[in-house]
Design goal:
alpha+beta; elongated; 12 helices; 7-stranded mixed β-sheet; 3-stranded antiparallel β-sheet; 10 strands; 47% helix
Length: 338
């Protein structure tokens, strides 16, 4: 059954984007189990999750879980520093401890990430990326993460990123992470945005959405902001990294056009919803997002014919009685001869 209002449609959309509850709980349990194994082995002092899974902005299906392994300080002298083989050695130690607990686990099976030991557990449909790291004693939240390819430790503010997203979510009364997932879903439906990472979308939405907004309003606000922002610098939510530094002028133009077109359609949908034509609004949002945004009810022929006489045509080609579709209908003159 199609939703009756735009609000209902967005609520159904939101639910459809949620991670599978069983996988979510399994990932959380496995995180705790791995933490216990590594701390009891004396390898780690503690761990924490990072990435979109930790920030609650990940789209389903769950594919991987990023986990920072804060190494015990006993290992700093031996492993920390460039050219000492520490990143590879720390991953080898982690691998040994994990393999002892889960003998059927596989390592670096899909790929060998520079910063992480990839673990595939036999009972999980997703992988774990275990990232060795040392605390940065000179900053409150910074860490140095391993790079086994370059044999060095790279500074990261991943905890700061997680914190600012959590704070923004609180400022929006819990709506922000849901709206980011909607933005990421929009991106997956746009071939012209394929180059954009999920963090780019998250950063654009972070800059645009600063207070609690209805999902439709938040989406239009973010799309309009993004259409302008992609022409310049796009910083991550911590304000450190310019995620757009490698984009070409042509790419920026295509990104901007895609966001702009979607924003205009979103505004049109809002006007129609305000006039009470929710099915026409849902039809437009379904076009903007694609699946899994709900589809509208089919329009009866009699309703379409009535709307054609005095209403307007939406950007999706639907005839509506509202005058605020993309194209207003103009009654034609009756044919007459002189």
């Amino acid at each position: 059954m199609a939703p009756r209002t735009t609000g209902e449609a967005f609520r159904e959309f939101d639910v459809a984007l949620n991670l599978d509850r069983r996988e979510l709980e399994q990932a959380q349990r496995r995180h705790q189990e791995v933490t216990e194994v590594l701390t009891e082995a004396g390898i780690a002092s503690s761990t924490f999750l990072q990435g979109s899974f930790a920030r609650k902005t990940m789209l389903k299906p769950l594919k991987d879980v990023d986990m920072i392994v804060l190494l015990a300080e006993d290992h700093r002298q031996r492993w920390f520093g460039a050219g000492k083989g520490g990143p590879a050695a720390s991953m080898a130690a982690i691998r040994q401890a994990v393999a002892a607990r889960w003998p059927d686990a596989h390592f670096d099976e899909d790929k060998q990430p520079a910063h992480a030991l990839q673990v595939t557990f036999a009972d999980c449909t997703f992988t774990f990326d275990l990232v060795p790291a040392f605390e940065d004693g000179d900053t409150e939240e910074g860490v140095f993460i391993a790079d086994r390819d370059l044999d060095r430790w790279e500074w990261s503010n991943t905890r700061t990123l997680r914190r600012v997203i959590r704070e923004r979510n609180l400022a929006t009364v819990g709506a922000f992470v849901h709206q980011v997932r909607m933005g990421k879903s929009f991106k997956t439906n746009q071939p012209t945005l394929e180059k954009l990472s999920g963090l780019v979308v998250e950063s654009l939405w972070y800059a645009a959405i600063t207070k609690k907004l209805a999902h439709a309003t938040a989406t239009v606000t973010a799309l309009e902001y993004a259409a302008e922002a992609v022409m310049g610098n796009v910083y991550d939510p911590t304000g450190v990294d310019d995620l757009a530094k490698d984009w070409t002028p042509g790419e920026r133009s295509r990104f901007s056009q895609t966001f702009s077109i979607a924003a205009k359609r979103g505004r049109e949908a809002q006007r129609l919803a305000a006039d009470g034509d929710h099915q026409a609004a849902i039809d437009i949002w379904h076009t903007v997002f694609g699946e899994p945004f709900p589809a509208p009810t089919a329009q009866p022929a009699a309703q379409a014919l009535a709307a054609l006489s005095a209403g307007s045509i939406t950007s999706t080609g639907r005839a509506v009685t509202s005058q605020r579709g993309a194209q207003t209908n103009r009654p034609a003159r009756s044919w007459r001869t002189r």
